[in-house]
TrEMBL record:
GO terms for cellular component: plasma membrane. The keyword Ion transport does not apply. InterPro entries: EmrE-like, Small_drug/metabolite_transptr, Small_multidrug_res. It is found in: Cell membrane. Its main location: membrane. It comes from the Bacteria. It comes from Nitrobacter winogradskyi (Nitrobacter agilis). This is Guanidinium exporter.
Length: 104
């Protein structure tokens, strides 16, 4: 169950990271409220997952899910560059996430 909570927390991290772009510096009400809500949910779910999982593993996986998801959505939504080096680095993060899951 803790792993599921951690995964959901990572998805919410992606949501608030992407949401930050849409808030335009927290000048737009609806995107700002949604972004702050996603932040709160993400941290709350992470906190619940930490009842069971080691902090180092959980935090690294949480940020890794957020980083990978945000980078991919940045490419898809905002035309961020999708260079081979960038994609390889995303792949390394995914490998790190998988490795941490396997050894925990």
């Amino acid at each position: 169950m803790a792993w599921l909570l951690l995964f959901a927390a990572g998805l919410m991290e992606i949501g608030w990271a992407i949401g930050l772009k849409y808030t335009e510096g927290f000048t737009r009400l609806v995107p700002s409220v949604l972004t702050l809500t996603a932040m709160a949910i993400s941290l709350g779910l992470l906190g619940l997952a930490l009842k069971t999982l080691p902090i180092g593993t959980a935090y690294a996986i949480w940020t890794g899910i957020g980083a990978v998801g945000t980078a991919i959505l940045g490419i898809m939504l905002f035309d961020d560059p999708a260079t081979l080096a960038r994609l390889a680095c995303i792949g390394l993060i995914v490998a790190g996430i998988a490795g941490l899951k396997l050894v925990t």
